[in-house]
Structures are given as structure tokens and as C-alpha cells.
Amino acid sequence: MAVDGELSPREAERVESHLAACWACRVRKQEIETTIGEFVRFQRQNFDLRIPASDGPRALLKAQLGQRVEAERASRLQWHRAVSWRFGGALVAAILALAMGGWLGLRYFQRHPSRPLDVSVPNPSLTPGATVLLSQRELCRETSANNKAVPVALQRRVFDEYGIRTAEPRAYEVDYLITPALGGADDIHNLWPQSSSATVWNAQVKDALEDHLRNLVCQGDLDLATAQREIATNWIEAYKKYFHTDRPVAGLRD
Amino acid sequence: MTDVPNESDALVVAAAAGQRHSSASAVEERVIALFDELRIPLLRYLAGFPLTLQDSEDVIQEVFLALFQYLRRGKSHQNVRGWLFRAAHNLALKKNLRSRREIQNAGPLIAVEELLADPSPSPEVQLAFNQTQQRLLSVVRALPEQNRWCLYLRAEGLRYREIAEVLDISLGSVSLYLERSLAHIARAAER
């Protein structure tokens, strides 16, 4: 406890005066300090280097906290509405307005069936990206790193998260943000509905980027964590950066 | 293992100043700042549990969401770092129980600790992974749970009293477990 500074000042003073007179005790104290230092160094060296970057987990936490804050706001709003029940006239007017709005909205949607949104880049709060723990060597050892088919139930959850309920299912393809070929995880936070209607920044263009980044990583020209971070942050910007172009190269557009 | 001023201390100062009922967005910002500061120390501590890295990340997410709720309720937060380690410890124990049940159905998982024993780490790690460290690793892994947890918490800079609170044990036990752990490690280093 003395080595760790856990004694009271009086006790610490007594220990210090004893140490000043005891050579063997000083050696022992030194040994303990060396052992602690050795352990801390060992733990940092062997563990910290292998922890994935915090971007993904941080974005996930932010998204979840954002949802909680929204939920709090919504419940406060509900409370205010409950209070306003006392004002009957205002309430009736509000109900009438809501009913009218709802009816008009329904008519609008009947006339204008929802069209698929052109989703080229995922929503970072819903799809921050998620990775499995793999070293560069383990990743590149895998020769068949094709994307696995996403289970239908998981696809439904992805559509649900993105609020896509009425569009044609074929209008989207549920895709990995960080491809498994770059260590992407089979996780809802790594999946997003990529619009099939995108004609410029489409799935084939993203596939080309994924192949290129994997080659760079496996040749040792690019750090795996950097590749994962860049594709998760904005794959279109990553494409522009690594292909040195503002437009997809010929042959990848529909 | 020196104590440096950090975000968790800033939170304590804010509490002392009487800012008990912060707005949701202010609390959110603090929680994110604490996450940035303490995610890696918490992951290192959770390496003392037989959990996968993904499970450990899940535990940490749950811990910080719980912290958000805790602070939003205007509760006392005199030692937020100790609170986080304690919450992570309890959730890891629960998660471990669940994982054990799932493992029986889904086959073995790779625990975070296995990472330390990975025979093919990156070149930098491989270079540093000398014989002494191999011995240290096997000694640490063979330590009884309580001894190992005490050691990991101390390595993260928690004081004896904080460790006692996290593990819900006496101060004397913390001292005893740490002494035993250090003796084992010292013997491994001497060989």
C-alpha cells in the first residue's frame, strides 16, 4: 500500500523513515515498482494495438443517446398535450385539424404512391459500420471473401429502421457498409438499404472500391483500420480519394 | 499509474458546483466525452472476463447508456469513473452467464483474452511479445478471478477504495489480492 500511495501521511512518513535505514526494503520496494511497471507496459503493448478504432462504437452510442433524447422530448410533448385536455375547444379544433390533415395526407399518398428514395450513402446514425476483430494477416489469408447473403429477417429490420415500408422491395439492396472482405461484421449497424435507382454512385462502383481497398490492405499499402474507417465514413469520398477521380471510372455506371 | 485530471474529474467538479439538473444535450456531450476517455481502459478491464470483444463493446454501450439515464435523473456522481467500472463489472458478469448458455448451443467463442495470446499478431506486437511477456500472460491468465480483477483495476489507476467498491470487497482483501498477484508476476519476471 505504501508503494501505491495508499497510506495516510503519518503512516507514509513512518514507512519512508524505515526505508531510509533499510537497504533490503528499498530493493524490495524497487522490485514491486518494476513489477507493476512491467505489467502495465505488457498490458498496453499487447492489447491497445489490437483494439478497433472507436469511430464505430462512438457513432453507435451517439445514435442511441440521440434516440433517448428524442424519446424524452416526445414524452414531454405528450405530457403537455395531456395538460391541454382542459381546454376543450382548442382540443376539438386540434382534432378536426388533425383529421383534415390526415384525410388530405391519405389522398395525397393514394395519388402519389411512395417512390424509392435515392439512397447512395447510409445514415451514419443508423449505419455507423461494425467490424469483426481480424488482423490484416488473418483477413488476407481468406481467399473467398465474398459478401454473404443477408438473412431476410435482418433485411426487414434494416428497411424498418430506415422507415422504408411501402416501396418496392426490389428498389433497394441491403448491402454491407464495410464489406466482410474488409472485416465488416454481419451486424445491423453495418447494413443499409442501397438504392437500386442510383445511376452514378451505385453498388458496382462501391464493389470496385472494396476490391481496390482490399488489394491495398493485403499488399501492405494501407492500414486495415484506415480502410474500414474511410469506407464507413463516406464511401464516395473514399472512392474519389483512392481512384483519384471525381466520377466513377468508365464501365461501372448503369 | 499517476492520477491525471480528466473528464471524469470535471464531472465531479460540475456536480460540486451544484449543476445537478443538466439538459439532455449537455449530459449527452459529457457522456460522449467520458466514452472517448474511458472506452479503452474499460475494454482492457473487461479482458479479465471470458467475453468476446463484441460482447465487451456491447457491455460498454450499455454502461454509457445507463450513465446517461443516471445523470439525467440528477443523481450524485462524485466518482463517475468508479461508477463506470462497477457497472461494467456487473454487466460483464451477467453477460458472461448469458454467453455461457449460448456457447453450449453455438460453439466456442474467442474471448478478448485470447487476443493477447494470438500467435500471429501484427509485426510490431510480435516484436514486443518476448519470452518474459509470454510468461506474464500465462501467469495473469492463471490468477484467480478476484486477484486478476484487482490487478486490472489497479493498472487502470483505480485506488484501493475504488477497487473495493467496484468488486464489493473489503480494503484488506484488495490489498491481499494485489499482493498475491504482484508476487506471482514478479516470480514470472524473475525466471
Description:
In chain A, helix 7 packs across helix 9 and helix 8 crosses helix 9 (235-243). A two-stranded antiparallel sheet of chain A has the order 1-2. Chain A has 254 residues and is mostly helical. Chain A contains nine helices and two strands, in the order H-H-H-H-H-H-E-E-H-H-H. In chain A, 22% of the residues are buried. The two termini of chain B are 25 Å apart. With 191 residues, chain B is mainly alpha-helical. The longest helix of chain B is centred in the middle third of the chain and has 27 residues, at 80-106.
- What is the first-to-last residue Cα distance of chain A? 70 Å
Proportion in helices of chain A = 55-70%
Shape call of chain B: globular
**C-alpha-based Rg of chain B, rounded:** 18 Å
Percentage of β-strand residues of chain A:
under 5%
Spell out the helices and strands of chain A N to C.
HHHHHHEEHHH
Pattern of helices and strands of chain B: HHHHHHHHHH
Question: What is the topology?
Answer:
The complex is a heterodimer of chains A (254) and B (191).
Chain A: H1 9-21, H2 23-47, H3 55-83, H4 88-111, H5 136-141, H6 152-161, E1 172-176, E2 191-195, H7 203-218, H8 224-233, H9 235-243
Antiparallel strand pairs in A: 1-2
Chain B: H1 7-16, H2 24-46, H3 53-72, H4 80-106, H5 112-116, H6 123-128, H7 131-142, H8 145-155, H9 160-167, H10 171-190
Helix pairs in contact in B: 2-3, 2-4, 3-4, 4-9, 7-10, 8-10, 9-10
Summary tags:
heterodimer, A: 254 residues, mainly alpha, two-stranded antiparallel sheet, 9 helices, 2 strands, flat, B: 191 residues, 74% helix, globular
Give the gist of this structure.
Chain A is mainly alpha-helical and 254 residues long.
